[in-house]
Specification:
The chain is built from 3 helices and 11 strands, in the order H-E-E-E-E-E-E-H-E-E-E-E-H-E. The chain is mainly beta and 232 residues long. The longest helix is centred in the C-terminal third of the chain and has 14 residues.
């Protein structure tokens, strides 16, 4: 993740780096042993994937627990989590499905807590945090292009796909992490049922299939519901 700097924008004030840094808060296990098959987006298939900072050194080591097509769905799927996933009421204030066995950690950003769920086996990571820019597209653009901290400045940065809708924006990209090597990131920003804007970021080694990296994002997006939100 990119380092955050004052006045550079909410995306980095919330989180200076999106990678897996040491956990600042207590780690809790999330349940999901196998990624659910990725869901095809209801919107166009171009994607855009930056988020706080996976685009930045994935491991921006901020210490506050903390995103293919899963689009702006924020309504929990009926009937509970898919096989290999666990529906959890996150302490930060939302319901979300996460892979079984993934470890939760939380870091406090300047504006909001950042939640991370880390795979214990293959280097994948899911990141969740609220953003305060006016629109998902504005938030994503700032995260990518800020002249001081945008993740487009990271080594090996390459856009793989972009997509957007009226209430969401997504960017998929790759970059060379200084510690973990080449990484692929999908950064999805959307408006939740209560009107709050969130970022869901997933990342993983480029050696993994793209749909495997995206799967946790798809599940999280389909199940995400803020506390007090009316999510059908």
């Amino acid at each position: 993740m990119l380092g955050a700097g004052a006045g550079a924008g909410v995306w980095y004030t919330v989180l200076r780096h999106d990678s897996t840094g040491p956990a600042a808060g207590p780690a809790t296990a999330a349940t999901v042993s196998t990624p659910a098959p990725s869901m095809s987006p209801s919107s166009p298939s171009s994607l855009s994937s930056p988020s706080p900072h996976e685009g930045t050194p994935e491991d921006s080591r901020d210490d506050t627990p903390a995103t293919g097509p899963g689009r702006q769905v924020s309504t929990p799927a009926p009937g509970g989590a898919a096989p290999g996933y666990r529906r959890t009421q996150d302490p930060v204030g939302y319901t979300v499905d996460v892979p079984e066995g993934w470890t939760r950690r939380q870091k406090q950003g300047e504006k909001a807590p950042v939640v991370y769920y880390d795979s214990p086996s293959d280097g994948r990571q899911l990141q969740i945090f609220a953003v305060t820019e006016g629109t998902p597209a504005t938030s994503l653009d700032l995260a990518e292009n800020d002249p001081g901290y945008g993740f487009a400045r990271q080594p090996g940065y390459q856009v793989l796909n972009r997509d957007s809708g009226s209430t969401w924006a997504e960017l998929t990209y790759r970059y060379d992490d200084r510690d973990k090597g080449p990484r692929q990131v999908v950064d999805h920003r959307f408006q939740a049922a209560d009107g709050t804007l969130y970022a869901l970021r997933v990342s993983g080694p480029v050696t993994l299939p793209a749909d495997r990296i995206r799967a946790p994002l798809t599940a999280a997006l389909a199940s995400f519901c803020p506390s007090g939100g009316h999510c059908g």
